[in-house]
Amino acid sequence: MYLSPFFVDILEGMSKEQDKHNKLILSQFSKQAVPFSKKVPAHANQAAFNLIIRTAGINKRDTVLDVACGPGMLSAALAQKARQVTGIDLVPKMLRQARELQRDKKLSNMDWVKGDVARLPFAKASFSAVVTRFSFHHFLKPSIVLQEMVKVATPHGKVVVVDMFTKSQAHSRLLNLLEKLRDDSHVKALSLPELQDMMRRRGLRHLKTRFYRLQIELEKQISASFPKPGDADKIRQLVKDDKKGLASVRRKNTFYLVYPIAIIVGEKD
User: Fold this and answer.
1) Distance CA 216, CA 259 (A)
2) Which residues are CB-neighbours of 62 under 8 A, at least 6 positions away?
3) What is the pLDDT of residues 95-108, one digit of tens each?
4) Does the residue 102 lie in any domain?
5) How does residue 35 score in pLDDT terms, banded at 50, 70 and 90?
């Protein structure tokens, strides 16, 4: 197929932008691998895992792909319900934590793949369920990742997106600013309609949505992150100035970041 030089330049530019962003993710999450696993227990909330598993209807017949699996916490929870779970992530240090967790939990029905989730290295219709958690806000083109997820799902398979979402323009401005200051690999938290519409446009049907709220102590979240010099103080000031409680709460003398989380499950045709 012939492509004009104009479109070749666009594609090359997109590829370079993606490669640059992947390097940023590698840098950030190589540093965050251990703190993400050990310092923020809210990431390993069993009640949240149970809600994801119930909403998605994961059972012993399922072969599951966990996209951008990180240190494997959701993968391990899924493996206790599914027949087989594969986790894929770009960051070797995250996969090292995932393998350690698998050993600790003595789970034999898991394997791990290092790879770019924008180009999933699996055949079409390989998995009966494809999930991703807390990842879409890090993707330059989440619709491309979703397209890949749909591609590797079996017909009538489940595609599951779990991520933070924004509730208003003011909430979006504050949440995205806080997250970008905390972790410069953050791209954009989307609104619930944006997430749902993206899934519908990729041909997913019978969408089912459930919600929960993630609260993380501000200082623990900062200590598990690697903001640029001076940005931690900017985060603290933004939280103190958040009088309407758009993205934070204060209990006694302790501030907590608050993330509304959506679990969206769609079925592939």
Assistant:
1) 8
2) 81, 82, 83, 128, 129, 158
3) 999 999 999 999 99
4) yes
5) confident
